[in-house]
Amino acid sequence: xxxxxxxxxxxxxxxxxxxxxxxxxxxxxxxxxxxxxxxxxxxxxxxxxxxxxxxxxxxxxxxxxxxxxxxxxxxxxxxxxxxxxxxxxxxxxxxxxxxxxxxxxxxxxxxxxxxxxxxxxxxxxxxxxxxxxxxxxxxxxxxxxxxxxxxxxxxxxxxxxxxxxxxxxxxxxxxxxxxxxxxxxxxxxxxxxxxxxxxxxxxxxxxxxxxxxxxxxxxxxxxxxxxxxxxxxxxxxxxxxxxxxxxxxxxxxxxxxxxxxxxxxxxxxxxxxxxxxxxxxxxxxxxxxxxxxxxxxxxxxxxxxxxxxxxxxxxxxxxxxxxxxxxxxxxxxxxxxxxxxxxxxxxxxxxxxxxxxxxxxxxxxxxxxxxxxxxxxxxxxxxxxxxxxxxxxxxxxxxxxxxxxxxxxxxxxxxxxxxxxxxxxxxxxxxxxxxxxxxxxxxxxxxxxxxxxxxxxxxxxxx
Length: 463
What we know:
By secondary structure, the chain is of the alpha/beta class. Helices cover 31% and strands 20% of the residues. The chain folds into two domains: 3-205 and 370-456, Zn peptidases (Aminopeptidase, 3-Layer(aba) Sandwich), CATH 3.40.630; 207-275 and 287-363, 2-Layer Sandwich (Alpha-Beta Plaits), CATH 3.30.70.360. The chain has 13 helices and 21 strands. The longest helix is centred in the first third of the chain and has 18 residues, at 39-56. The two termini are 25 Å apart.
């Protein structure tokens, strides 16, 4: 009964095709949470696939209704308790996916059928998130097998079905069930590795705040020959308003929207990583963003403002007329300790000061909070030690993911230290046609999680 046995079992699990079989079943569930016609598939994924699988591993499983009145995607909670003296880990995953977009996949590929081509496993949800939680559940299964139906720790699992729809009801569920979900640490997998050939650990995520800027000057468009030079152009006004907020090099000009000083513990870990362009990556624009920050700090320790769309007139059929209005949809990715509740207040004050009183501002949907665990936290150090032991490599440590996850439900509501170990990579095409998982990262992920869960059952975990 040793750690090496778990590694061998997980290697066999992948090599004999059992991982492919498990993931293939899960990919076949068309769990599109953004598609109202597929809501019933969300519950089926939990009741017909995940619940039976976890029940066989000795978990007590229950399905809970979503507390959000507008979204019917349920939650699955599973609990396997061994001893009050043991540490308790909460594992999170999501069973929903974005829409399949079947017609735009390459010939021979189907989003609902797992397909192997070379080193790639294609299918909707392979990377986000079915392939990743399949790895973690299998690691639990084979630690149990190696330890003869014992883990040496308590484990709780929460699977939601609305992450791709903004995780409706997740925070309310956590608030109502704090005791049920209580644990010592969250360990979950989502998102990409920083580098394909090295394990990554991240400790939170940037938040995202979405808003709209609009100029509406009059009813209807007016002939540019008859009225040009007499009527203000809302497109020009809006473009200048945006340029007063952010420079032509992508640097935020409104002080209250910037991230502020980077903590030394964050600077320390970011100095050890290196963002490099891979073959299929877009080329990094070195002169874009905050001038005083490194590329790594721009992504993982900085606030950024992006214009997602800009519309004035009729882009598909332009006419010789001055348009009546212009609209820009924007968002801010932000890090701790930025407060998104102040963003529009600060933008409004800035616009008024610069003569753009006519600009209307409104949030377009609820924001997702920024979170970050201190890289010096004992659970971080313990996790890195375990991952190094398995991989024999240095670990890329990110204070937070550049993207956004509903991590605040666990860090802020449940007050848990949060450890994320991703099993995908940046070019996996998640949310796009031809989404895929790499076999070599999958094999590595199985080993990493098997080692981590084995170590959780050994002495020496943080108190």
